[in-house]
Amino acid sequence: MFNDLKSAVRPALMLTLLFAALLGIAYPLALTGIGQTLFPAEANGSLIRDGNTVIGSELIGQKFAGPTYFHGRPSAAGADGYDAAASAGSNLGPAAQALTDRVKADVAKLSETTPGPNVPPDLVTTSASGLDPHISPEAAFSQVTRVAAARNLPAAQVRALVAATVEQPALGFLGEPRVNVLRLNRALDARSGRP
């Protein structure tokens, strides 16, 4: 009876060890190698560098304050927002008074500096992660007048810069046109210098 149990357990144990080695070691190493070889920037977090200094990732939003920069979506991630270690939405429902009050205050604040009848929704609503690095082209174009005035640049020049940074949908139909706020602000600094 012991030999029967031993002969039944041995193949199961060998298959467990084989699949653990194959799927727990060989497969992850192979995918890591392929990613590092074919897509090194993406495999390492799509980091944006200024010389040897990492200043951000094109996948994670950052807070830009003041009139001289384009602003991204508001963030509910962490106490001050944009905390990658605390990625989350606010969990406030559409009927929550706190959400309504915050959006109304944000709309009023943006209406002071953003001309036009409507504030683009993505400038006053958070994303699910709280770290969305993109805004719509409409949201970027709505900020052109403020940024151009704050930097003493012609609005047409800033508008052309925004147009040049609009990312089109993948394959022409997957997703929506979008603007990466960090890339746009870096292009703005490259064009006119840091304020």
Please give a structural write-up.
It is a single chain. 21% of the residues are buried. The chain has two domains: 2-41; 46-192, no CATH class. It is mainly α. Strand 1 (47-50) and strand 2 form a beta hairpin. A three-stranded antiparallel β-sheet has the order 3-5-4. It has a two-stranded antiparallel sheet with strand order 1-2. It has seven helices and five strands.
Mind sketching the topology for me?
Layout: H1 2-38, H2 40-43, E1 47-50, E2 53-57, H3 97-113, E3 134-135, H4 137-141, H5 144-151, H6 155-165, E4 166-167, E5 178-180, H7 181-192
Which keywords apply here?
195 residues; mainly alpha; 2 domains; two-stranded antiparallel ribbon
Percent in helix? 40-55%
Distance between the termini: 82 Å
Biggest sheet strand line-up? 3-5-4
> How many structural domains?
2
Number of strands: 5
Can you summarize this structure?
The chain has about 200 residues and is mainly alpha-helical. The protein is built from seven helices and five strands, in the order H-H-E-E-H-E-H-H-H-E-E-H. It has two domains: about 1-40; about 45-190, no CATH class.
